[in-house]
Specification:
Blueprint (H helix, E strand, L loop, with lengths): L11 H8 L7 E4 L2 E4 L8 H15 L15 E2 L6 E6 L3 E6 L11 E2 H13 L5 H14 L1 H33 L5 H50 L4 H11 E7 L2 E6 L3 H14 L1
Parallel strand pairs: 3-7
Antiparallel strand pairs: 1-2, 4-5, 5-6, 7-8
Helix pairs in contact: 3-6, 4-6, 5-6
Bound molecules: zinc ion.
Zinc ion binds next to loops.
């Protein structure tokens, strides 16, 4: 980035234009039409889309009601109504049954008591280094067939690509020698180039998929492993998102939190538990 001395900052509007410009993903839009570019992408389409989602969230009107960290995340263990938050004495946050089916009589619980139990749930996903390595190896092993499939597909695509390159050269020679009419050369040349562009696209997809099989598994594992550490550094809204992502069926009964882990985190939690028991 370059700056003028009179204006040594990135303008908000400049930053906005950069972050909303699809050009950096390798594609572009010209006069309202979408084109696949030939330039090298510097960010992925999914990252671009994530950024657009953030803009949409920011532009949404802010809620005026106080957001309680755990409101709406849990149901009452007695009657099944939702648990809501409330401020008492101007500073203490309590949670209680919304009593949607009449007064169910469950206690008011301090936020700290619930927060501690949610944190415990995340701590239980922390794997030992040895177990983490074992699972990573198993993941790679279990996907070796897919990896082989992609590799052979990539080979086929590359050989077709080479064939097309040779054909383009050959028809060009034919055109120069007057063996084929200009019109035919033009049509064939376009046709081959179009197919080559498609192959380039497929090659990119296969490389990505190959990477994804193992990487997405490893990513989930690391996510689980770091969940507790990440959690404490996040905003309340992000913490809610994390809890929603990892847990389901959360209920609160007489101050005790119950929950189940969503798949595949249930398996990770089982693995951690098993390792602790078997030492
Ligand atoms: Zn209740």
């Amino acid at each position: 980035m370059r700056f003028r001395p009179s204006q040594p900052k990135v303008l908000r509007s400049t930053l906005y234009n950069i972050l909303t410009n699809i050009f950096y993903t390798g594609d572009f839009i010209l006069k309202g039409t979408f084109y696949k570019g030939k330039h090298e992408p510097i960010i992925s389409l999914s990252l671009f889309e994530k950024a657009q989602q953030v803009f949409q969230q920011v532009n949404r009107p802010k809620k005026t009601k106080k957001d309680f960290a755990f409101a709406g995340l849990m149901l009452c263990g007695h009657c099944g109504c939702s648990i809501t938050g409330q401020i008492q004495k101007g500073k203490y946050i309590y949670y209680h049954c919304s009593n949607g089916k009449g007064n169910c009589g469950d206690k008011y619980i301090r936020e700290e008591v619930i927060a501690e139990q949610f944190e415990d749930a995340l701590k239980k996903l922390k794997l030992s280094k040895a177990l983490l390595l074992d699972i990573k190896d198993a993941l790679k092993e279990s996907h070796s067939d897919e990896i082989k499939f992609h590799a052979s597909r990539v080979q086929d695509l590359q050989s077709r690509y080479n064939t097309l390159t040779k054909r383009i050269d050959a028809i060009y020679e034919d055109k120069l020698d007057g063996k084929i009419p200009e019109e035919l050369w033009f049509r064939k040349n376009e046709e081959y180039k179009k197919e080559m562009a498609q192959i380039e696209d497929s090659l990119r997809q296969h490389t990505k998929a190959n990477f994804n099989y193992v990487e997405s598994g490893v990513y989930l594992l690391e996510l689980a492993n770091n969940a507790h550490q990440c959690y404490s550094q996040r905003s309340i809204m992000e913490q809610r998102q994390m809890l929603n992502f990892l847990l389901s069926n959360c209920t609160l009964k007489a101050g005790k939190l119950d929950y189940i882990y969503k798949t595949p985190f249930d398996m990770i939690a089982e693995g951690v538990k098993f390792e602790k028991v078997s030492g």
